[in-house]
Amino acid sequence: TVSVTCLHPSASPDSRPGPAHKQPTQCAMGKKWLPLESNPTVMADFAHTLGLPADVGFHDIYGFDPDLLAMVPQPVHAVLLLFPITPKSEQVKDEEGAKIKAEGQTCSDKVYYMKQTIGNACGTVGILHAVGNCLGSVDITAGSYFAEYFAKTAALSPVERAAYLEEDDGIEAAHGSAVAAGETRCPTLDEQINLHFVALVHVDGGLYELDGRKDSPVYHGATSATTLLQDAVPVIRTFIDNSDGSPYFNAIAMAAGSGEF
């Protein structure tokens, strides 16, 4: 059984991990941004500015007990997981990638996936993955950044989408504003980060993990629009098992409701 204390909700900023520590895997990237804080309010303001409708927000997931999961509004469109990169998690990532390359996997062609080539951009890439895979169930604001971005990148490959993001000054500026709105100390560009975001989404009856550091989406079995949150829990538990004992996890749902109280 995983303790609720494995999650660090943003409602308790003193107990939430800040965005900075060492992350050797990120420093190899070329362009580099400051990291986005794992904070529902910051994420909601950022996404709403870019075109996410006001009736969809970001909500802390306080734990995995049924009563705590029931606190999250439905429907849940995506789950964003912040987790620590550790030697064990990197080993598991490499082994998983090799297995998928050798054996293949189920993967719907409807999954919107992009690579991450900007250091510390995993928060923004996670939000793009979350929003990009619920365009059929969420009414993106017409004429907004999201509307234009997803229209222009729909036919691109994951690598081409990453290149598009690198050249996009508009979202870089919006990301910078969101970083400045965070509550925890912001690291410098020279600091290395060992915390990383992934998105867990429902597409075409499947549960997919979307991580721009990996070679492809990762299929985690069947799910539905109504069971995504519950079905994401075993995936999150696996991340916790591969954390080398680190407690620095935060899970946030993109779901119905503004997220404001």
Sum up the structure in keywords:
single chain; about 260 residues; alpha+beta; six-stranded antiparallel sheet; 9 helices; about 35% helix; disordered N terminus
Q: What would you say this structure looks like, in words?
A:
The protein is of the alpha+beta class and 261 residues long. Helices cover 35% and strands 15% of the residues. It has 9 helices and 6 strands. The protein has a 6-stranded antiparallel beta sheet, sandwiched between helices. Strand 3 and strand 4 (206-210) form a beta hairpin. Helix 2 runs antiparallel to helix 8 (169-180). The longest helix is centred in the middle third of the chain and has 17 residues, at 87-103. 41% of the residues are buried.
Which spans have pLDDT < 50 for at least 5 consecutive residues? 1-28
Task: Estimate the helix proportion, in percent.
Answer: 25-40%
Shape: globular
SSE order in H/E notation? HHEHEHHHHHEEEHE
**Which structural class matches the secondary elements?**
alpha+beta
The number of helical segments is 9
The major beta sheet can be summarized as: 6 strands, antiparallel
Q: State mean pLDDT (0 to 100 scale).
A: 84
Percentage of β-strand residues = 15-25%
> Gyration radius, to the nearest Å?
17 Å
User: Biggest sheet, strands in spatial order?
Assistant: 1-6-2-3-4-5
Could you give the count of β-strands? 6
Spatial gap, N to C terminus: 30 Å
